[in-house]
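step: validate -> pass
step: tokenize input -> pass
step: predict -> running
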Amino acid sequence: MGSMADVETAKRNAALRAVADHFNPSARYVGIGSGSTIVHVVEAIKAIDDDRIPRINFVPTGYQSRQVIYNAGFQDIKFDSLPKGITIDVAFDGADEVDEDLNCIKGGGACLYQEKLVATHAKKFICVADHRKLQPRLLSKWPSIPIEVEPLACRSVIERLESLGSHKPAVREGHMQKAGPVKTDQDNFIIDAPFSTLLLPKDIELSNSLHPTHTGLEGNGEDGKWEVEKLAREIKSIEGVLSVGLFFGMNGEEIEKAGKKVGGQKPVAAYFGMEDGSVVVRRADETERTLPPIQG
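step: predict -> pass
step: emit ->
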């Protein structure tokens, strides 16, 4: 694994490519996510010389991203101040891990509820990350699923997560000794819930085709095996859970084709800065290509 300087360069390369491909200076509303990679996205936008950019309303996913927007000299607007009927033109955000189908784990920075609000109300969500986040399946390297929970419900939620097969789910604690649990911008707690590596529908289809005489694999937690969407929906149904750090299902473009305006969680494309300076782009149509870095 490269140095942290190499990782930051990889993030910057991914951000430059993503902005070049998906940022339109004529946009009215642009979502800005949380985390270190998004700093590079904002810097890439700031470097564009276009007098339309100051008129854009940038929608943050939390306190940290609001500060990044402010420090860049851009105009921010809170999610709940968006005009009625408006959808965000594009949302840029990072991820803790992304699988082959563009399902994402998010919430390592404890902003997952607002991140999901912005992603689901965007015409398209663009994921920007470094090579460490590019994995074949979720929970390949990232250890757990972040879950935002109302504090009073934490104990009962943990008990339910254990019954679903999570090994030692726990409330996330602050970095400083005696600081107590991490609190989100909504004053909720984060539970980190480890599970076995999550399956994709094609894994279930392959398993059942190879073993047609056996009881079919369903991905409903049997033997600890969960399919991404099934686990996400099961966790979300627990009383006290506000948001689950699994972004799954349709993306914004698919939602629009289905005749709806909001609800897409997955990115339409994910950009990964690689160790060799290139950028790998995964798209919703299952294509993947490798591009050279943009000089800038």
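step: describe -> Helices lie at 4-22, 36-46, 63-71, 112-120, 154-163, 201-210, 228-236, 252-257.
step: cleanup -> pass
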